[in-house]
Amino acid sequence: MEQRKNMRFPVRLSGQLDLHDGEYVDAETCDVSLQGAFVEHVPSGISDRSCVLTLFAGGEDVFAITVDGWVVYENERGCGIEFESMDTRDFEAFKAFLETRAPDPKLLQGEVARGRIPVLQDWKIS
């Protein structure tokens, strides 16, 4: 039985994964939640590493979000990334995007109310 704290959405978003050692890889999610994502086709040996994940959505839901995260596991398909922190504006855009895909948006809002989200910060560009 799954022990997930957040609803997962089968959403494909493209992006880039920065592994903090000068290695950048193209990324594509197969599912996302308010606190994480599963990213397919990444190099092996990246478990237990910090990363920065940037994701892009096109079409009617255009946005780009950047998330500080942690690679919590990997398998032959890809890796699971736990979102640690993100910009407040990015989070609001991401949450709104997921609300349009939720069978009941109130469940997603409940996750936010229970604090099942990354740490939110104001990331200002100097």
Output the strand order for the largest sheet.
1-2-3-6-5-4
Main sheet overview: 6 strands, antiparallel, barrel
Strand content: 35-45%
Mean pLDDT across the residues is 91
Low-confidence stretches: none
Dominant shape: globular
Please estimate the helix content: 10-25%
Distance between the termini: 46 Å
**Rg, nearest Å:** 14 Å
Report the strand count. Answer: 7
- The ordered string of helix (H) and strand (E) elements is EEEEEEHHE
Structural class by helix and strand composition = alpha+beta
Number of helices: 2
Write up this protein.
There is one protein chain. The chain has 126 residues and is α+β, with helices and mostly antiparallel strands. The protein is built from two helices and seven strands. It has helices at 88-99, 105-113, and strands at residues 14-18, 24-33, 36-40, 50-57, 63-74, 78-87, 119-121. A six-stranded antiparallel β-barrel has the order 1-2-3-6-5-4. The model has no long low-confidence stretch (mean pLDDT 91).
Task: List its salient traits.
single chain; 126 residues; alpha+beta; 17% helix; globular
Describe how the helices and strands are arranged.
Layout: E1 14-18, E2 24-33, E3 36-40, E4 50-57, E5 63-74, E6 78-87, H1 88-99, H2 105-113, E7 119-121
Parallel strand pairs: 6-7
Antiparallel strand pairs: 1-2, 1-4, 2-3, 3-6, 4-5, 5-6
Short description:
The chain is of the alpha+beta class and 126 residues long. 17% of the residues lie in helices and 42% in strands.
